[in-house]
Automatic annotation (TrEMBL):
Key words of the record: Cell outer membrane, Membrane, Signal
Gene source species: Flectobacillus longus
Family affiliation: Belongs to the SusD family.
Region Disordered: start-end pairs: 296-319
Gene3D superfamilies: 1.25.40.390
PROSITE patterns with a match to the protein in the record: PROKAR_LIPOPROTEIN
Phylogenetic lineage: Bacteria, Pseudomonadati, Bacteroidota, Cytophagia, Cytophagales
Protein name: RagB/SusD family nutrient uptake outer membrane protein
Composition-biased stretches (Polar residues): 296-315
Amino acid sequence: MKKKYILWTALCSMFALASCESVLDKTDLGAADPDLVSGDSVLANLSLNYIYNQNLPDWGGYTSISALGSSTYTEESYNQGSSQNKYLEGAIAENDVTDFGTALNATNNYGKIRTINSFISDLQLNPKMDAGAKNRLLAQAYFFRAWRYFELVKLYGGVPLVLTPQNAVGIENREGTFLPRNTTSQCVKQISADLDSAAKYLPATWASPAANWGRITKGGALALKGRLLLYAASPQFNPTDVNTKWQAAYDANKAAYDALTANGSKLIADYAKIWFTESGNTEAVFVTGYNTSVGDQQRRNSGWEASNRPKYSTVSGGGSNLPSWDMVKAYPMKDGKKPGDSKYAYSDLLFFKDRDPRFEKTIAYNGCTWPMSNVPNNRLWTYYAAGKSVENGGVNFSFTGFYCKKALQTSDVAGSTLDLSNTIYSGTDWQEIRFAEVMLNYAESAAGVGKLDEAYTQLINIRKRAGIEAGSDNLYGLKANMSRAEMFKAILDERQVEFAFEGKRFWDLRRWRLLESTLNGSKGTKVQINLKTTGVPADFATSRDGMKLEDVYTNYFTIALTPNALMSRTAINYLPKYYFFAIPTSAIDNNPLLKQNDGWTNGAFNPLE
């Protein structure tokens, strides 16, 4: 995908300013350049774009140093091989989540906050700039300060609130005084205030939408506030189910939904094409832009394409986010009912038959049509013959038998295929918040305050877009008259499917305190589709592409499921203390006022306050 402009990487070509180099290549990357924020709005925008560059999340929702949130931390895609995945196995120690930041470093969370605070402070002192322009710039900076603190709070609970440029990142204020941790509720209040300030001055839509694609809008700020307060109301932060927290989440998420819909936000009709529309994408709310432009200052490629294709279909990476059998089984049937409860028969051998249409658009499986690498009618074959995978001659094949094909550029969803040499140059944009999430956040918070009809409406509209059958009751497979608890479960199940491989599942299980009950004891089920040893045509390898897939499976394949066989190391063992990670020892050694979280060594801080 190509775009004329991208917010931070096209700065030189947009403005042709000699000072551009000082924005992107400064020796002091810990602060925005005061010279830029003291002049006109064009130069201030250059400094703000540096803040965008520092803080926008990467593909898959990575926003932290430890890259938490990957599908390999949940049942979406089990870890394979002999390397240890501490987050999946439940072997996390005090110093494994290092996102807190203790040094004067622009790449840690407090370094990024210092940059934002410097920008805000310098801009507020600027007497020359038009008030409207200044407020719009400040609003974007407030959004990213809120974003950074939200990321910290969801890891650790309350953290030190630093709202002015400090001397030592995350340790001292300007007076050289060490800073203690603020309570979690104080942090949530400040993050909310920053997002309110952002929403007050941000436009609903930017002028010249194509040139400003990816800029934060009023709806984006409101949507993040909705996500924040939904976390605050969830059992991780609200184990006693305090109703006022659910009411705050409901008010915020309904406000975000109403503001976005008033400005034209809606679901894109085809689930498979969500990722392949840029300016004018009605589902995109909070976006990180990538491009395929050539040139040192303009190229910013997404790694998603190359990392998720089969290894033999890309020149770099490949084979990431391999869907598990658990993920395959999570999809309902096309009437919206669970396998076994549906009017459509289900069998493990014909797992692909009559499923929710999102299944076909997300998971590539043995025998499916997957047009890629300039082969429009390509069929993917991952079965075993004589004990060996036939995929790519038994080399670099999927250990689960499946691939994630969400957001990969293929001719059926993007209009053209990428050839092998260009997979590393994908410009597909990441949508950290899309309108479907706003709808489901609204549904969940509505359920929290007992407004189940509103929750039904949002769930039904999500399922309608997916292509699930309406049914005679027009409930799209949902159970009628659900209780509050049943509705919560239905929404969580919907999120698992709707946001598969989008970095949401880990955080959903964590905020609902379901990591142990969902994952503990498992090592993943190994799936192997085997070619029968008798009755198979001699020309099967050349004739299989022309056969009806259901007949191929029924006549020539068997399926073998081996529980607890995917992970070669220990089974998952999440512990209750992982719902709030430990403050790294180095941070505590650096600041005597920092207290460790309850449950960890010498823990005395209650993250629930």
